[in-house]
Amino acid sequence: MSKERVIQFGEGGFLRGFVDYFLYKLNEKEVWEGKVVVVQPIEKGMCDLLSSQNCEYNLYLRGIENGETVNERTHIDVISRCVNPYTEFDAYMELAANPDMRFIISNTTEAGIEYLGTEKFTDRPAKSYPAKLTQLLYKRYELGLPGFILIPCELIDNNAGFLKEYVLKYAELLNEECDFCNSLVDRIVTGYPRDEAEELWKEIGYQDNCLDTAEIFHLWVIEGHHEDELPFNKAGYNIIWTDDVKPYKKRKVRILNGGHTSMVLGAYLYGLTTVGECLKDETVSAFLKKCIFDEIVPTLGNTETDVNFGKAVLERFSNPFIKHQLLSIALNSVSKFQVRVLPTILEYKEKYGAYPPALTFSMAALIAFYRTDNANDGEEIMKFMKDASVADIMAREDYWGGDITGMTAMVENYYNLIQEKGMKAAYEQVLSEKEAY
Known about the structure:
Strand content: 5-15%
Number of strands: 12
Oligomer: single chain
């Protein structure tokens, strides 16, 4: 049996449809051998469900590649077991004692890499992901074993840098051998195909409650050089080892993720449910194109590479196999908006002297969405966003990473437009507005 070599914080659809797929393929191509131990990062998760299936599941990759339709099913069995530190803390800490463990990979969403400062080493477990990680790393240090290579996949700039900073805040003593590698992940993982599940079960031959779906496209950029230990290039995958992930990350997060986040909340209020529906709808599609090509791409520099990436994103969003639920993308939208959309708004204002209409409108749509019962975020955030005034929401520097009150009047006008005339009229108003340049 293969040795356990990877600790993975997160058991959701993305990691299973991206990282675990590649690790499975490295085993299949016999260029690397290893298993993954999944750690459930929050109290309520999928460990029990995955364990009930022996941590095995099927992944469908579907899309257009080189002009050809691809519909590929892979039965993935690279996960050896799941550990829930909330009920199996000792088993979690024992992972530090395994000398074969080499990599720690995570995706705890943008909200997961945070510093609370209230945890103790005696907590079983500590609450935040960085604090849990510190407990594990310190145990490893005490045992005198080599450090880990850490590859966080959370979509924040300098993700490994922030993770390391918070870990060091929790522990002054840390094995200096650990290599924190910033990374960028790019694959649209649509998760559990609820509408197709029974049909796919018939095709597979049994019921798979952890079924996962994703597009065929993939890109993983990792700041570091560990091809010798994880031979992704040898296996033929579009995975880039580099000294600087920033230019790749900025383009992807601003255009693809920023496009998603700026579109989905308004589109949901407009009555749509999937990204595919958005691209087929003339109004919402025009809004997305305005966000990408009139506001995001010019802020990045309007290079041919930026424009082509934007065009490719529209093609990927239009993938007929993908049924990407808007409510799935809407998870933790406050932190996503801060990371994915706000930087473009502020840079646009600095560059052109005015706020971009479409992206600023998307902030008003976010506030309107959080007034509904469909928001899915931290309890305190949902409670506050549901009842607070627009001005009070805009004043929350802890939500937005700085002072954005200069946008308040414009956001308030758009919010009132949504409330008084509805999303259709609001979209038409924004689409008629000229850009500042």
